[in-house]
Amino acid sequence: MFHTQNNRIRVLVADDQADVREALRLLLKTEGIDTESAASPAAVLAALETREFDALLIDLNYARDTTSGQEGLDLLSSIRAKDSTVPIIVMTAWGSLELAVEAMRRGAKDFIQKPWENARLLAILKTQIELSQALKRSQRLEAENRLLRAEGRPAMIAESPAMRPVMDLISRVGPSDANVLIMGEHGTGKDVVARTLHALSPRSGRPLVTVNAGGLPEGVFESELFGHVKGAFTDAKVDRVGRFELADSSTLFLDEIANVPMNLQAKLLRALETGEFERVGSSATRRVDVRILSATNADISAEVHAGHFREDLLFRLNTIEIQLPPLRERKEDIPLLALHFLRQSAQRYRKNLTGFEPVALQLLLDHPWPGNVRELDHSIERAVLLAEGDSVRASDLGLRQARETSLRLDDMGLEEVEKVLIQKALARYGGNVSHASKALGLSRSALYRRLQKYSL
Ligand SMILES: Nc1ncnc2c1ncn2[C@@H]1O[C@H](COP(=O)(O)OP(=O)(O)OP(=O)(O)O)[C@@H](O)[C@H]1O
Ligand SMILES: [Mg+2]
What we know:
Elements: E1 10-14, H1 18-29, E2 34-38, H2 41-50, E3 55-59, H3 70-82, E4 88-93, H4 97-105, E5 110-114, H5 118-148, H6 164-173, E6 180-183, H7 190-200, E7 209-212, H8 218-226, E8 227-228, E9 240-241, H9 243-246, E10 251-255, H10 262-274, E11 276-278, E12 285-287, E13 291-296, H11 300-305, H12 311-317, E14 320-323, H13 334-348, E15 355-356, H14 358-366, H15 372-386, E16 391-392, H16 394-397, H17 405-411, H18 414-428, H19 433-440, H20 444-453
Parallel strand pairs: 1-2, 1-3, 3-4, 4-5, 6-13, 6-14, 7-10, 10-13, 15-16
Antiparallel strand pairs: 8-9, 11-12
The structure holds adenosine-5'-triphosphate (ATP) and magnesium ion (MG).
Residues 155-158, 184, 186-192, 297, 337, 340, 373-374, 377 line the site of adenosine-5'-triphosphate.
């Protein structure tokens, strides 16, 4: 815990007395903390120009003026002007509490009175370093989330460990022009991912164009994709623009790609390779600039092996592959998803529902969800319609009652139990950390630490 990602912790110690600097260096060394020392305010500012520190431990009195602390206070202000976040702990003479208060007002995080007590000094220092590291981590997470919350982006809930690499990939390839093949069982969110990728891209100003290869007869499908001209076939009474043309300068989402008939796969391949195609019944070649997203719940490599899908077409489509795990492999997301769907349905049906009873939530966690997120959505919608009172009860869900919770608890480790309790509390209070922490008898910060620990 007490290491930054790859580096050791580094603290800048500033005091005009060499023996104080040396004593602090030795003390921090016992904790595996590296120190750098500065003998004057100028040396502190110079050191800050060259390196980053995890914390600063600075005296307020320097040789020029040894009691007022004014030099130290000025130093504090100069540091804060450069760096608003690095934790600063000031050292003051015994009994100069007013000075300590003034230092905190100017941005010091805590203070130590000299002569110091080693244990107390270390405790204060570690706390401040941990707090600032936690803050940095949460700021980074927030920046990532902001990216994922781009304009027009559909709601996509995915906080579980199994979804983390998926979300990471989405945020990285979304803004690119790369063709992406999205794979996953029914209802795992392939549509949501396609819309998210498009929303993150520079093409998002234009609408995403979708064509479903599953539901269309062969002849219709070709004209759906490429359009046709009047008279191309009996029913072609007027010219028709195909989806490829509609998606020019935008994104085309080919859903259920495994169902594209073999003879159309060659035409599709050419369109993908060159951006060129002809409307059905016309010999005029048209050219478009289209990014292709595709999705399937079939085992596409098996389709290739079986000779049902062209390998060269697959290689055009799957520059990047995103594999969505089934919901049963990301149960950590169930409470948040359930709450999301509860809010949606409650609003739609004007019901005053705020959460789930613990047993109901346990049922949701235990269910295998063969229909994945869509099945969860539908179950909650039905429960919302049935529910009376302010929370959804187990009986509203219409799922089979799982084995007794206590039996399951017997099989769980302490940490697993803690995690489940936290998930329940969060679901119950709509993700409100203050309320959840109160219900659990934890401080907010203690709960945050656990949320981080369990990746909740
Ligand atoms: N991560 C998620 N967060 C919020 N809602 C989701 C998420 N994943 C899926 N959903 C919702 O679940 C439902 C099913 O998702 P979607 O249509 O994207 O699945 P799919 O994989 O395309 O399914 P199919 O294979 O049947 O086409 C939709 O209502 C969608 O909004
Ligand atoms: Mg779909």
